[in-house]
Amino acid sequence: MSEPELSSAAESASLERGYRRLLAFYPTAFRRENEEEILAVLLACAQDGQTRPSLEASVDLLKGAMRMRLRPRPGQPRTVFAAVRLMWLGAAAELAALITIIVTAGAVRSAVLHADPAAGHALLDHLVADVVGAPIAIGVWLFLAWANSKGRDSARLASAASFCLLTLSLVGALVQGAVAYAPADMIAAAVLWLVAVGAVVLIFVPASNRYYRPREAVLI
Amino acid sequence: MQEATFLILTALAAGTQHGYGIISDVAEISDGRVKLLAGTLYTALDRLREDGLIGVDREEIVDNRLRRYYRLTPEGEKRLAAEAARLQAHATAALRRLKLNLAGGVA
Predict the structure, then answer these.
(1) Report field, pTM of the whole predicted structure over 0.80
(2) Per-residue pLDDT for A83 more than 60?
(3) Which of A6, A81, A157, A209 could form a disulfide with A10 if both were Cys (CB 3.0 to 4.6 A apart)?
(4) What is the domain count for chain B?
């Protein structure tokens, strides 16, 4: 049996919905300016009877959305853009660390429990803390990246505060002698700290200042 | 300058065009080799507008759909001319080294 035939209006409505879903990945300002026009072009390029976006067009739209989002905003100094990219890098590094911990947890756990049951339990607590803490850290990195890229002055303060917390936790771990029992952990923490130093320095250099304005000053 | 950007500016060098018109024109200029897709075209147009190389000439509503016409700005013309001269210089050098006769193909 053949499929029930769609009227051409229904086909084009279904295709339009599909394209709108893809266009939703673009930044709001870009959509406000261009969505209707892009849609007109996409529909003009469609084949007769097409009800779903083609793979080729979909991939191209998603690549474009990513390009738009990775591009500096108008008026954004290079320093701020570089800082925002470092914050994404921080989030990505946390995610990589989280995946490594989850993937290796079983092997590490049985090895340590086998060698020294007492140390094994302490290590498990440590692993659980890492698994719970990493998603929070990823969220903080992403939030700070977003807020800094918008030029909110409070984002700079929040970044500086987060940096202080990160430094304190690193110093705390060093004092407890973490270098001896978890060298890989400490190397990862040190790399993240360096990324954070880079980001914080970049948002406070003079070239970045003009981009950050307190909300009140904007209103005046 | 990326090839897509170069071809978009070239399409606009002849006069104002709307999005779909640019796509067909670029296909024609490149002998069907470059098929611009909407995502590529509009991220490029957005960047070119931001850089002041193109501008919006006028907007029309056709079949209830927005149609925007773009034009090259004087700055865009300058950049396209400079890029075309650069590409031509490179192509000339390549052909000369390959010992091809540029004057009309007679060896």
Answers:
(1) no
(2) yes
(3) A6
(4) 1
